[in-house]
Amino acid sequence: KQWYQRRVRGAQDGEFRGKHDVAQFRRSNLTSWLGNELQVIAREKTIEFNKLGLSHLPAVMAWICANGTQEACDILCKAGDFQLAMLVSQSSTPIVRQLILKQLHQWKEAGSDTFITEERLMIYVLLSGEQIWESSTGTVNVCAKLDWLSSFALFLHFLPPSSPMQQAILMYKEAFEAGVFKSPIVTAHQDFSVFWELLLLFHNPAHPLSNVFNNPGITPNYLDERDTWFLLNTLLSLGLPPPSPSLSNKITTNYAAQLERLGLSKWAVFVLRHLPSGGENALKQLVRRICGDRETEKFCVDRLRMSSEMWSRERALAARFRGEWECEVLHMCDAQQYMQAHNTFLKKIATEKVVSREEESLRCCLEKLLPHQDEIPGWGSGGGVYYGYICLPSSLPDSKEELEELRVKVSEVGAALNLLPYTSLHEVCAVDIMGLRTSTLLVHVWKALFHETENMELLLTLRTFPMPTDYWLHDVLSKISSEIITHEEECIY
Fold first, then answer.
1. Burial of 393 by CB count in 10 Å (0-12 exposed, 13-18 middle, 19+ buried)?
2. How many other β-carbons are positioned within 10 Å of the β-carbon of residue 279?
3. Which of 148, 297, 300, 429 could form a disulfide with 306 if both were Cys (CB 3.0 to 4.6 A apart)?
4. Are the beta carbons of 445 and 459 closer than 8 angstroms?
5. pLDDT digit of tens for each residue in the chain (493 aa)?
6. Are 48 and 106 in contact (CB under 8 A)?
7. Under a CB-based contact definition with an 8 Å cutoff, are residues 280 and 303 in contact?
8. Could you tell me the pTM of the whole model?
């Protein structure tokens, strides 16, 4: 990441004057990173040497691999190995390397190398700039006991100063393909061979990312997608070409599922929002499962800028599965699905509540729909009729002006009842009940206004009201001045 950021700044500031400067900068960055990684191993070896009283040479080898010449010399001086400390301090000089290699050949000719321990002989071979050397007793392989990352670091450290890092990568690749050193690919879960794929990617930005993520060494646990997902998004943020869409989607959805299983649903939402087009389908399925968690919803809406309508839609769907129709209508209104909410209201709620004489419970749904009546086709012949009906008063006003207004309103509501569906048994019962109540209320209004002096006009008005088939119009008129209508008022109200 530092390399890509620095590359942009350097190009803007004129820092790099040519390809050589770029190559040297890349090598310096890679050397620094390797040093930081291998210093951890070197410190562990140093602790073993200090506490357990073991040989100091493994710790010295570890610090040389980590490019820690000063630390290696300190350990040698502490152990009293001053001659080797002087050689290590001068090992970066080509002349010194040639002299050490010449000395090794002289020891071999004289057979003196047989008296030198294997660990010390390995360090001499390493300081001579060689990785493999034939001694009197056999082959000395400097990297035989090293992990692949330390082996590769030696190739990089002992390159000529002017050589690019690509040369070290190619030399090491040829060496492990020839079976000389450990391969970073076969040590999947120990050395994390994904490092090698990243080195190849650093060497060649055109290296396919699919090779990185199809590598079994990317994580020690096949079911753990944490490192995989973070690595994917880090590389994409650096401007590298993405791998195949199917691979990216698989990594993202697997990691989101892992987070959901651990109870981290809000972070699963965060991960899924990295899918192409915001991962709408995957998000819908996840929100459907967690739509009852208000804390998660608040986090997603406030922090992740998710649409609150999506949560309302999924809550409405959950309410539908449970048969909670009123909740479904209210959640659909919150999701701005007013037409669907209106249809559900007419099919599942309105007639049931009227027949069970619970008309007032319709008010909460209708008041949610009322501000958006212009967006609802058929409002005037559906929800608008029910809203006008439940807004009828239960008692008559005192003034004649208010009575006249009520008369007009009741007449309109009664006529509008004919627009409601009148096919199923529930619909027929509901419309008849509302027609009876509306006609009774209109008769009361006429009695208060005209004292029953305009029965013909009242008759014409009542003709427009839906009535039960066994409830003849002349029966209504005959009850105007009788006590029967009072008894029906008690039944209706």
1. exposed
2. 20
3. 300
4. no
5. 444 444 444 444 444 445 777 777 777 878 888 888 888 888 888 887 777 667 888 888 888 888 888 998 998 998 898 999 999 898 888 888 899 999 999 999 988 888 888 889 999 988 888 888 888 888 888 887 887 788 888 878 777 767 777 777 778 777 777 766 665 654 444 445 677 777 777 777 777 777 677 655 556 666 678 878 888 888 888 877 777 888 888 888 888 999 988 889 889 999 988 887 667 888 888 888 888 788 888 888 888 888 888 888 888 888 888 888 989 899 999 888 899 999 998 888 888 888 888 888 888 888 889 889 888 888 888 888 888 888 888 788 778 888 888 888 888 888 888 888 888 888 888 888 888 888 888 888 877 777 654 566 676 677 777 776 655 455 555 554 453 344 444 444 4
6. no
7. no
8. 0.62
Q: How far apart are CA 128 and CA 95, in angstroms?
A: 10
Between CA 167 and CA 142 the distance in angstroms is 19
CB hemisphere CA count around 161 (13 angstroms): 3
Residue entry with tokens 């290699």: 101
Closest CA to 399 of 452, 457, 448: 448
Encode the chain in three state secondary structure.
CHHHHHHHHHHHHCCCCCHHHHHHHHHHHHHHHHHHHHHHHHHHHHHHHHHHCCCCHHHHHHHHHCCCHHHHHHHHHHCCCHHHHHHHHCCCCHHHHHHHHHHHHHHHHHCHHHHCCHHHHHHHHHHCCCCEEECCCCEEECCCCCCHHHHHHHHHHCCCCCCCHHHHHHHHHHHHHCCCCCCCCCCHHHHCCHHHHHHHHHHCCCCCHHHHHCCHHHCCCCCCCHHHHHHHHHHHHCCCCCCCHHHHHHHHHHHHHHHHHCCCHHHHHHHHCCCHHHHHHHHHHHHHHHCCCHHHHHHHHHCCCCCHHHHHHHHHHHHHHHCCHHHHHHHHHHCCCHHHHHHHHHHHHHHHHHHCCCHHHHHHHHHHHHHHHHHCCCCCCCHHHHHHHHCCCCCCCCCHHHHHHHHHHHHHHHHHHHHCCCCCHHHHHHHHHHHHHHHHHHHHHHHHHHCCCCHHHHHHHHHCCCCCCCCCHHHHHHCCCCCHHHHHHHHHC
Contacts of 422 (CB under 8 A, 6+ apart): 428, 431, 466
Residue in the block written with tokens 């004057």:
17
Answer for the pair 132, 112: CB distance below 8 angstroms, yes or no: no
* Residues forming a β-bridge with 139: 134
Spell out the residues 6+ positions from residue 243 whose beta carbon is closer than 8 angstroms to its own: 208, 209, 210, 212, 213, 232
